[in-house]
Amino acid sequence: MDSFSQLLDGFAAAATPANLLWALIGVTLGTFVGVLPGIGPAMALALLLPLTYSLDASGALILFAGIYYGGMYGGSTTSILLNAPGESSSVMTAVEGNLMAKAGRASQALATAAIGSFVAGTIATLLLIFTAPVVAHFAAGLKSQDYFAITLLSFFAVSTVLGGSPIRGIASLALGLMIGLIGIDSVTGQQRLTFGVDSLATGIDTVVIAVALFAVGEALWIAAHLRHSPPDIIPTGSAWMSKSDWKRSWPAWLRGTALGFPFGAIPAGGAEIPTFLSYAAEKKLTKHPEEFGHGAIEGVAGPEAANNASAAGTMVTLLSLGIPTTATAAVMLEAFKRYNIQPGPLLFENSGPIVWALLASLLIANLLLLVLNLPLAPVWAKLLQLPRPYLYAGILFFSILGSYSVNANPTDILILVILGLLGFTMRRYGLPVVPAIIGVILGPVSEGKLRQALQVSNGDWSTLWGTAFSIGAYTLLAGLLGWTLFKVLRNHDQPAPDAHLPHG
């Protein structure tokens, strides 16, 4: 009951004209960046973070939450109309969604994505509202070694799940951990990896790193592979669904929500696994198996619901444990810190009014997204015709402006260029960017928890697995490691598809 009363107070704060305006701007911007190929909510947040320091904490966080939810939906438009998912979580939406569009059912595909996003987002946000305080209360009893075990599990899970190669994911994580170690050691006072550059003694600002790897790296990559011919975009009208479409979609929305939220909430989450599982479940349970592979509406409804439910699930881990499991959550964590708000077990106690206003605004943002996206589907589709050179030139401009505004330090621009080239190189060789960002943000946290645990135990390493929770986390880590090794060995042993064909 206490949570319900605090939620009502949160609604009172979120429903002020100023905060409603920020929520509207957030979902509009989020949908905008989600629609455009190659621009996701993480990049948008990284670009906007330096430009929002003049806002109060609640307004800025409500804006960012709106961008997060809007970006998760906007990617479905690109996937359906262009068959070009901007993020890995939208891949399964593209499978059946683009086939529906090619069959003249683009409006129905966009409608089931929009309404499914609203249904899943609303249910998952309500689950977030009532589970996050409980998880935070439980987390208050965790020790340093428990948090260290959680970070290790998160590192390995994010690195092996994202991308096609666990080795590349771990390499990306190693790069992020190395960048996160730059600066002065808090215990010994020695400089680490500064190469004699005094301006690196305080470390590299996380915002500069995120902007460089996401925005600059992506812009350079797109420029290097820019197609001169305009993309083939399928025209669409206002989103709508027939009675039969509703009947086939609503069970898929509920099943997708049931899969997406828990996978997002675990400290190894993300939307990739639940969207794949949702697609597989709908394909198995459908009464119209002949339509799968030719444009089945359940194949859009389920994965899109799982995608948006996982976004709310990710907020559980972020708010109650202070651990981000997606790129967008990592940038949001940095936004919290910019306003001296520390997500974790004491968040609801120390910053309750702001957090409850944020949670209430998520429900408001969900409703705003539905109102925006159903009638404006044709408008969002026209955004895909924006000239790419102008778009990515603007991204580079705002990247430089935002990075300089963080500390007003010209050295940050040089660092931006160097790390931007690193981001381009990572894309060139298939290294996912998300593990690097997680490593940058969680690396110092993990190091601090490790040292704290060892200091309390006088250097006894056995303390790291001295609690039931840490043993459970390491057991999950061992299981994940065994599954990854099995997958790698199985793929290695399988012959190439054309290995049996004669050459020449």
Automatic annotation (TrEMBL):
Keyword terms, alphabetized: Membrane, Transmembrane, Transmembrane helix
Alphabetized Pfam families for the sequence: TctA (PF01970)
InterPro entries for the chain: DUF112_TM (IPR002823)
TM region positions: 20-49, 61-82, 109-135, 147-164, 170-188, 200-223, 311-333, 354-377, 389-406, 413-443, 463-486
Domain DUF112: 20-438
Source species, domain of life: Bacteria
UniProt xrefs under PANTHER family: TRICARBOXYLIC TRANSPORT PROTEIN (PTHR35342:SF5)
Protein name as catalogued: Tripartite tricarboxylate transporter permease
Species the sequence originates in: Nocardioides jiangxiensis
